[in-house]
Design a protein that fits this description.
The chain is elongated. It has a six-stranded mixed β-sheet, sandwiched between helices. The protein has a four-stranded antiparallel β-sheet with strand order 2-1-4-5, with helices on one face. 62% of the residues lie in helices and 10% in strands. It has three domains: 1-109 and 118-132; 142-294, ABC transporter type 1, transmembrane domain (ABC transporter transmembrane region fold), CATH 1.20.1560; 332-573, P-loop containing nucleotide triphosphate hydrolases (Rossmann fold). By secondary structure, the protein is α/β, with parallel strands linked by helices.
Length: 575
């Protein structure tokens, strides 16, 4: 079972595909640790051979050899660091597309988990750790036994004393793991909370300032910041204490080895060169433990990121790349007993809705606030997955379509208009690379927004700013309508499309709906204003998440007017 799990892990498979680089890192680590013996051997030869003989040629020859050894050691160390950085970058390139898709899927299906889960952030932490000195320190840990063997061959007591030190430092490493694991999770949660509050304050700065909430919001952020600093301080204090203990103990151990060596020399069991060489060698033997403790926070963070990513990859396997491509829809939309719940909850907000819209028809959706209108269209376009029931285009359920391919056949204007940083043309073309100008212009003409765009400072090349900051609400809505109409999608879904429009914009909207019908497309319009309903053929009345009436517009309106008294404004009784 363990073997099967390993094979099924995308992360393990990605690392395994880089086995050549990992083997190279291992070979370089071997050569580095072997070359580390050079300094100790040089010191021992100088004390035991050069000084007694006063031979300058021997000294120069030994110095030349140790210089070459140090040069190779430095080169190998740089090569190992560069190779680890290349492995980290390759891992990122291999997984970034899959991870971004997973991040998007999580934002749609589990939006409440944003504080805790971010696959892209976890991949960044993995890449940063692999490119850091941490992996090299961990790979050097097994070489402690090699140095212990060398010391034991020199004299058994030198090996025993160093082994004692290794056991103590291993205990410190274990303590570091126990302590930092808890604190790292707390620091991560506090950092996420502070970052999300900062993002919220940035997005809503105008509202905060206009409502006199600046001091209260600042106090709230300051509280989160103080909490973060406190958690970070606890982690830093614990790490520094353990790192300091390990450093002091390693220095003490070197002196202890030197003392044991001196005793051996006094007893005639070793030479003076052995004393100093053994002291340096014991310190080098335990240096990886100290380095591992210093990098343990990064190791714990990377291990947690690995666990989260691996679990998410397993929960949401990658979709097969090759799919049977369905023809563009051209006949009908059928919703059959559809029940929807917001992502991450079990509370149904749309229950058992059924309807059918044929090519060339427009459906108006009306009802009071919180009746399920916007939720329904989210299910119709595939953003929300059905809890029960189906949504079909030309008989095919939405999950039979490639998501990007389905998006080409859907035009969506959400209630909260969202434009992206870029030009007007890029937003209309949905940031399609090398989008044909004639299609961009055609979408703008269909939305009745061409002349308005020409009046902007740079026309179609005007920068809209992030979230359309440089445009008015009405301009954003009309440009978003053009985006929904780009490439003549079969199904156009408009959620309160006239909420920010002036009379000219309303006329353009009505013309756009008529044009979609004329080319045998389908239009779904959520409306609070009665004016747009003159363009629809069918009417759906939502209330309490259920369809209270559905059918030809005039029949539904007649039944509604007969069922309850007319209110001022006509349709306002239901809209």
């Amino acid at each position: 079972m363990a073997r099967k799990d390993f094979q099924e892990s995308e992360l393990s498979a990605a690392l395994t595909s880089m086995r050549g680089g990992l083997i190279g890192v291992g070979v370089l680590s071997t050569m580095l640790n072997v070359l580390t013996l050079g300094g100790s051997l040089y010191l021992m030869m100088v004390y035991d051979r050069v000084l007694p003989s006063s031979s300058l040629p021997t000294l120069f020859a030994l110095f030349f050899m140790i210089t070459v050894a140090y040069a190779f050691q430095g080169a190998f160390d740089v090569m190992r660091s560069q190779l680890l950085a290349d492995i980290a970058a390759s891992l990122d390139r291999r997984l970034t597309g899959r991870t971004q898709a997973l991040e998007m899927q999580l934002s749609l299906e589990r939006p409440a988990a944003r504080d805790r889960l971010s696959p892209i952030r976890d991949l960044d932490q993995l890449r940063s750790f692999i490119a850091s000195p941490g992996p090299a320190a961990l790979m050097d840990l097994p070489w402690i036994f090699f140095f212990l063997l060398i010391l034991s061959l020199v004299h058994i007591w030198l090996g025993v004393v160093t082994l004692f030190g290794a056991i103590v430092l291993a205990g410190l490493t274990w303590s570091t793991d126990r302590v930092t694991k808890k604190y790292v999770a707390s620091v991560t949660d506090a950092a996420n909370q502070r970052r999300n509050m900062g993002d919220r304050n940035w997005r809503h700065a105008e509202l905060i300032a206009s409502l006199g909430m600046r001091s209260r919001i600042a106090a709230s952020w300051d509280k989160a910041h103080v909490h973060f600093l406190g958690e970070q301080s606890r982690l830093t204090d614990s790490s520094k204490m353990l790192s300091g203990l390990s450093k002091v103990f390693r220095m003490f151990l070197q002196s202890l080895v030197l003392t044991v060596g001196a005793i051996l020399v006094i007893n005639g069991e070793a030479t003076a060169g052995v004393i100093f060489a053994s002291s340096i060698l014991s310190g080098r033997a335990l240096a990886p433990v100290e380095a591992a403790i210093a990098n343990w926070k990064g190791f714990v963070t990377a291990r947690q990121s690995w666990g989260r990513l691996d679990a998410l990859y397993r929960q949401a396997p990658a979709e097969p790349e090759l799919r049977t491509m369905l023809p563009p829809p051209a006949k009908m939309l059928a919703v059959d007993h559809l029940t929807l719940a917001p992502p991450g909850t079990n509370r149904a907000v749309v229950t058992d809705v059924a309807l059918m819209v044929e090519a060339g028809q427009a459906l108006g959706i009306i009802g009071p606030s919180a009746s399920g209108k916007s939720s329904l269209v989210r299910g119709v376009i595939g953003v929300w997955k059905p809890a029960r029931g189906t949504v079909r285009l030309d008989g095919a359920t939405l999950d039979q379509w490639d998501p990007d391919e389905l998006g080409r056949h859907v035009g969506y204007l959400p209630q909260s208009v969202e434009l992206f940083g870029g030009t007007v043309a890029e937003n209309i073309a949905r940031f399609e690379p090398d989008a044909p100008s004639d299609l961009i212009l055609a979408a703008a003409e269909a939305a009745g927004v061409h002349q308005m765009i020409l009046q902007l400072a740079d026309g179609y090349e005007t920068q809209v700013g992030e979230d359309g900051l440089n445009l008015s609400a009405g301009q954003r809505q009309r440009i978003a309508l053009a985006r929904a109409l780009y490439r003549d999608p079969f199904m156009v879904v408009l959620d309160e499309p006239n909420s920010n429009l002036d009379p000219e914009g309303e006329a353009a909207l009505a013309g756009a709906v008529a044009a979609v019908k004329d080319r045998n497309g389908i239009v779904l319009v959520i409306a609070h204003r009665a004016s747009i309903l003159g363009s629809v053929d069918l009417l759906l009345v939502m209330q309490g998440g259920q369809a209270r009436a559905f059918g030809p517009r005039d029949e539904v309106l007649a039944k509604m007017n007969a069922a309850k008294p007319q209110a001022p404004g006509g349709l306002s009784v239901v809209a």
